[in-house]
Amino acid sequence: MSDNLALVDRELLPLLDRLGPAALDGTLLDAARAERAGPPGMVDKLPVETIARHIPGMPGDPEVRVLVSRPKVVSSAPMPAILHIHGGGFVMGTADRFLPLLRKWADDLNCVVISVDYRLSPETPFPGPLDDCYAALVWAVANAAALDIDAGRIGVAGESAGGGLAAGLALLVRQRSGPRLAFQNLQYPMLDDRTGPDSPRNPVTGDYVWTREMNVFGWQSFLGTAPGAKGISPFAAPARAGDLSDLPPAYIGVGTLDLFLDEDVDYALRMIRARVPVELDIFPGAFHAFELEPRAGVTRRSMARRTEAMRRAMARED
């Protein structure tokens, strides 16, 4: 453990013990994927139904699997919707692993949650994963009536690499004049391929769960080229975007020990300067993916803040 262990929220220390040393590369990827595959084995009793669908991909791409979670009691009016994009460093993770959270959102917010099982890298590098997310958004809008959702109240949410894809999707929608997003809800988003061992170092970030070395592997897999190179698309690495105006209102949450702290705060400030409404929460003593410890007070606070931000963003304007 590093000298920064004293800065970790005490309630998160058991999580570090369970997870062990942080490492990921090509030799460890299959095992990491297997550990994070499939449903988490938790059964809830929420009045929510979840259905897996296979929807059309972008032209020339395969079908995209999505999980649609919705309240069993149909609302009298079309519901808002969340397009969810899971995390996993672009190289691992599934929508199924997030089902407890997605179903809770559907119940708490009385909304439809559509989670995208986008193709993973390095097998499918950029733009494939982002194209899958865009295809899911287009499908949701085209099928709004059948899904009983309000096409004007669809927002995007994601964690880590999923937060980066969500931010990239917001930029792509703006560029293509595509379906308008009501909000972007980004939890410790992975935004900048230039964050690595050779970048200016914040001495308290990147020690736990997701390190600088792991970040290089994730970006290399996603980009298909060395991170930090010239000409990287801002749709792949949103921190590269020169213009952040006319983006949907944003919520960003990140911990003080997270590797992505600096890039997330910088992105929030740049959106604020571009007149985008931004809510930024920074959680003391929290490292990347700290919400894997659900009993910690900081996790409960983060979940509540994030959920309320979406509730406000999805509120109907009368």
From TrEMBL:
Provide the protein name.
Alpha/beta hydrolase fold domain-containing protein
One molecular function GO term is: hydrolase activity
Q: Where is the Alpha/beta hydrolase fold-3 domain?
A: 82-291
Lineage of the native species? Bacteria, Pseudomonadati, Pseudomonadota, Alphaproteobacteria, Acetobacterales
Q: Which Pfam families match?
A: Abhydrolase_3
Domain of life assignment: Bacteria
List the keywords (alphabetical): Hydrolase
UniProt xrefs under SUPFAM superfamilies: alpha/beta-Hydrolases
